Every structure is written in structure tokens, then in C-alpha cells.
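Internal ticket - ligand job 282, NAP:
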Amino acid sequence: MDRKVAITGASGFVGRNAGSFLDGKGFEVVALVRKGRAGFGRTVVTRDLAEKKLAAQVGGSDALLHLVGTGRQTTESDYETVNVSLTRNAVRLCRRAGIRKIIYLSGLGVGKSSTLGYFISKFKAEQEIIRSGLDYTIFRPSYIMGKGDPLSSMLAREAARGQVVIPGSGKYRMQPIFVDDVSQVVMRAIFDRRFSKKTVDLVGPKAVTYNRLVADLAPRARIRHVEFERAYHEALVSAKGPFGVDDLSILVGGYLGDHKRLARMSKLAFTGYGTMLKYLRE
Ligand SMILES: NC(=O)c1ccc[n+]([C@@H]2O[C@H](COP(=O)([O-])OP(=O)(O)OC[C@H]3O[C@@H](n4cnc5c(N)ncnc54)[C@H](OP(=O)(O)O)[C@@H]3O)[C@@H](O)[C@H]2O)c1
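stdout (C-alpha cells):
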């Protein structure tokens, strides 16, 4: 059977991992990027997913995996443009190309009563997809971890400089999931009817505090707790720090999800927290 998938945001962390994985599983992969080459499948450069030529290039795909997104705003790149408008364009591309299924990575904690700008934009993107009439799977991920993921890369950079900063108490929790498991789940979601028209938490088997995660990933680094007010102020005045303002809100949100449902639906044996750490340390 010919299997084909198109991936937006193919140059990002999840895109690179899921794209190479699906390529290795025999999918024809169309990697949509805004510049450069994806390093797997067939790369197609697109500014905003709206060019007419795209439909022919992604046509025949079993699904569009929509991974374009941002968790930090700048004056050039805001949530409405990146998270909402480009999702609208992704939906239109599916319609034009006759792709029946869209798979989207939203965020854990997103919901109708969200008050955070990032979550609101993800909620609006979800609504674009749900109302599109397409088949869909919306995943709401906690922190996706693997070689080169944004969180462990940031911790590695800080550790190399001699100290890791923990905003506030560090007692807030998260439910990291291994990126290889995410790739497997995404592949299941392309064809398995159990994932049809569903919104599913994409979370690992274990909840850990940020303190614990930092100790596990940077065991020899000096830890410095900074007052949350100070971390927040630094995030407000500079885009260069380890956290953006919304990163901090999501951290202290302590969002946890329903791993059992994900395991039941996917029938996958998920990578345990300890094993994931071993892969990250290799
Ligand atoms: N990783 C996680 O732990 C996590 C957790 C929750 C939700 N998510 C969501 O999952 C999706 C993928 O995450 P990721 O970790 O792979 O993120 P990532 O590494 O930051 O990749 C994001 C992708 O979006 C593209 N992009 C950003 N702004 C764009 C714009 N204005 N126009 C076109 N493309 C743009 C980037 O292109 P360039 O490479 O050219 O910059 C990149 O390919 C995102 O929607 C993210 O919000 C991820």
C-alpha cells in the first residue's frame, strides 16, 4: 500500500523526529518548511501554506501533520498569525488537496476557559480544525522530550555555563513524553479509527516536578532558585532568557493529563521516565 503524509513545521523538533520516523516506516513524506531542507522525504518550501502550487505537491496524502506553531510572541511573529491563521491555511490546503485527515499538536491545558494568550490561540486553532468538517486528531502535549528538544537543550546550555536557574519553588509538575513515542502515536492516528475526531492528551506515564526533572537532567549543575517575580520580569524585558512569559505560565500551571486513555487508544508500550532519561543522556 502506498502511504503518504505531508508535514508542516517539518524543520522543527517534532517535525524532524516524526518525519524521519515516518520516512523510515515507508511513508512518502512531503516536508513543508519555510526555508532550507528538512533532511528527509521531499522538501517543499512554503511561506504560509497558501500558495496554489502546494495542493498538487501534497495531494494523495493520507494525512496532514500540522506542526507549525510558536510558544513565544515577538512583534514579527504573534500567536494569531502563526498559531491561528496558519492553521486556517493548513485546513484550506487539506480541502484544496483532497486530504481528509489533519493531525494537530495543540497544548496540554488548552480549553474553552483558557485565559493565557498562547492557550487561547491554540484553542482557536483547534476550533478551526474541529469546524472544518475534516477528520482530525488533536493532541494536547505536555513537554515532548528527546535529543535536541527545547527544554533539555535549554537545561544543557545552562548547565554548561555552570548553573541552572529554577523559577520559583520548582514544585510545579509536568508529564513529559518521549518523542519516539509521539512519532508512534502520530502514525497510529493517521489510520486508526479510534483517533478519529478526537482530542487527546499527549502525556507520558509519569508526572514529575520541575525540581526532579532538572536534578535528573543536569545532576552535576549548581541549582539556583530565583524568585518568580524576578524570572517573570526578565522574561518580560528580554526575549533572550531561558523562559518566555508564557513558558513561565505554563510551567507553574502544572498541567497533567490522562496517560491511561492515550495508552488504551494507542495500545503502545510507552517509554518509562527512567528509560527516557537514559536516551536523553546518551
Ligand atoms: N515540543 C513540545 O514539547 C510541545 C509541547 C506542546 C505543544 N507543542 C506544539 O507542537 C508543535 C511542534 O512543536 P516543536 O517542538 O516541533 O516546535 P519547534 O521546534 O519550535 O517547531 C515549530 C515549527 O513551526 C515553524 N514555524 C514557526 N513560526 C512559523 C511561521 N511564522 N511560519 C512558518 N513556520 C513557522 C518552525 O519553522 P522554522 O524551523 O523555520 O523556525 C518550525 O518548523 C508546535 O505547534 C508546538 O506548539 C510542542
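Auto-summary: The pocket of NAP is lined by residues 9, 11-15, 34-35, 67-71, 77, 82, 86, 105, 107, 141, 143-144 (CB under 6 Å). The chain has a mean pLDDT of 96.
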